[in-house]
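[job 0412] stage=complex_fold ligand=pyridoxal-5'-phosphate status=START
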Amino acid sequence: MDYQDLISNCVKQIPPSGIRKYFDLLDDSHISLGVGEPDFPTPDRIRKYVAGRLKNERVPYSSNSGDPHLRELILRFLDARYGISGYESIENVLITVGASQAIDLAMRAILNPGDEVIVHEPCYVSYKPAVELAGGIAVAVTTRHEDRFRLKADEVRAAITPKTKAILLAFPTNPTGAIMEREDLEAIAKVVRGTDILIISDEIYAELTFNGKQHISIASLPGMLERTVVLNGFSKAFSMTGWRLGYAAGPMEIIAAMRKVHQLMMLCAPTPAQWAGIAALEDGFKDDFADTRYMIEQYEARRRYIIDAFNSLGLSCNEPEGAFYVFPSIKSTGLSSEQFCDRLLANKKIVTVPGSAFSKAGEGHIRCCYATSMQDIEEAMRRIGDFLKEIR
Ligand SMILES: Cc1ncc(COP(=O)(O)O)c(C=O)c1O
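[job 0412] stage=complex_fold status=DONE, emitting structure tokens
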């Protein structure tokens, strides 16, 4: 049987994730700065709450949209944390299987064949495939090291065509750690107000900001609630990656279209994960999200260390103000980002991810995730220093 002949052309032309290649090589002798996930356990009180309910209750499907109480809590959270307010009801919120599914649903809900979605690059690996699997075309706008990887409104304006359906924003950004200040977002908002272009804003790293910076959501700017779908989830802020819990909040009709796909293809997000989400938010409101604050403090110390270490090794590293990645330039080594990561892995057993895994615009950089112990980070930087001496 010719299996290749059976596989769709669209799936065939999507390259495999450039991140996975490195994870699959990992064993205990390696230090990983590769995987983008918190190294903390899910907070104890969340696990206890779910364990209690699992002991005493059935685990049924939830409603397709997700647990109503969780959706109420999410509305409250979006308002309290990011000033996103004005939704009519919990019908503006859909609970999904991670932000990942929310990205997929948003694309499938809005795209007709040939519709364009503007995506800023370097960016998270799933955006372009999600657009293409939904029949759309991803139109890249490059962000640059010298602009601290912020997205320029003029470049967005220049990329708009009559086929532009949406602009996918992802700040804080994976892999660059870039954030957008209010005026940066205001400039983008100015471009889309008065048009029928939707903003899809992946805010999965919104809680993880540093240097005293608060996350600003484009949905909180005047006139933007009605033209923005906010995607978020529990993976990063609550150390809940494996629970698979995310959500979308946005205009009722767009959320209803996403729900239509979701209810047929997924039924609902996992019920115990939704219980975990309830505990995360209820507890968080009681003590101003102390568990998350604790994790951020730890990340902050590691972030400071790793930025300074890269710069002192001569690998120029921007100061990322969000997420938990640094994205130093390795151009001075003369290696491509893939060569650098392959050789670092083979010679020093350090896992990093080539910038090219996040699009061509990421070439010349490597992504290092500092959501790992300080001890491992210090050892990794020592070995990277040795590696640089060997190759220079
Ligand atoms: C920018 C971005 N969006 C979405 C996701 C997926 O998040 P989730 O675990 O909620 O599916 C990730 C995961 O790394 C990410 O980096």
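The two ends are 50 Å apart (CA to CA).
[job 0412] exit 0
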